[in-house]
Amino acid sequence: MPVVKDPRSTEFLRLLRERLPEKRVSHSIFVAEYLSSFARQIGLDHDQAVAAGLLHDLCRTLSNDEMLQRAQEYDLPVGPRQLAKPVLLHGPVAAEEVRRELGIDDEGIYEAIYWHTTGRPELGKLGQALYLADFAEPTRPYAEAAQTRDMLRKVGFKDAMLFATHAKLHYVRNKNADNPEGHAFYLWLQQEYA
Asked: Does residue 93 lie in a domain region?
């Protein structure tokens, strides 16, 4: 079922267009469409997949000061990495705003949005699927995105998930950045999918 058929999509899209530039809105739509295209195959609810996909970057374009202020207001953990790079808080801040502003009190959606950037050990299936869809939606220009989509079609979700997580870790390492959550997530997936 297309994203626009979801009962609350119109409301979500209106909010995204108020807050985000068109390029980020388009990305969110592509993530939601891509995620919803394989959601049922892996046992996910379509409406949850659409909501998580559309709303995952709701706070992506906040300024550093706004991001830190909202994180403090929502009593979210902020460590040295987040202080140095507040954009890392866009998932947690968006998860809180989805719950508070939109009244979506769904733990799966909250968790998926919160951890969509880094992942974490024991991340639920919706969170894993959002992580993969955000990494590999069809407009992503890097070769690994296309490879992930191809793997999902040909060999399945688990292999595509492992590939996407490894590729993202490699990308972060090449930028000399630290991603302990992502590394722990990848190690957990290796054990979980063994």
From this structure: yes
Q: Which residue has the tokens 């909010």?
A: 15
Q: Which domain holds residue 119?
A: 3-130+137-142
Residue 77 lies in a domain: yes
pLDDT digits (tens, 9 = 90+) for 26-41: 999 999 999 999 999 9
Encoded tokens for 41 = 């195959």
Taking residue 164's Cβ as centre, other Cβ atoms within 10 Å add up to 27
Q: How far apart are CA 146 and CA 102, in angstroms?
A: 33
| Sign of the torsion formed by the C-alpha atoms of 41, 6, 107 and 185 | positive
Q: Give CA–CA dist 32/51, Å, rounded.
A: 7
- Two structure tokens written together for 5: 């058929």
Q: Beta-carbon neighbour count of residue 158 at 10 Å? A: 16
Q: Are residues 132 and 123 in contact, defined by beta-carbon separation less than 8 angstroms?
A: no
Q: Which CATH number do you get for residue 120?
A: 1.10.3210.10
Mean pLDDT score, 80-90: 93
Contact 95, 82 (CB under 8 A): no
| Token output for 114 | 């919160």
Stated as kind and residue range, the H or E segment containing 93 is helix 90-102
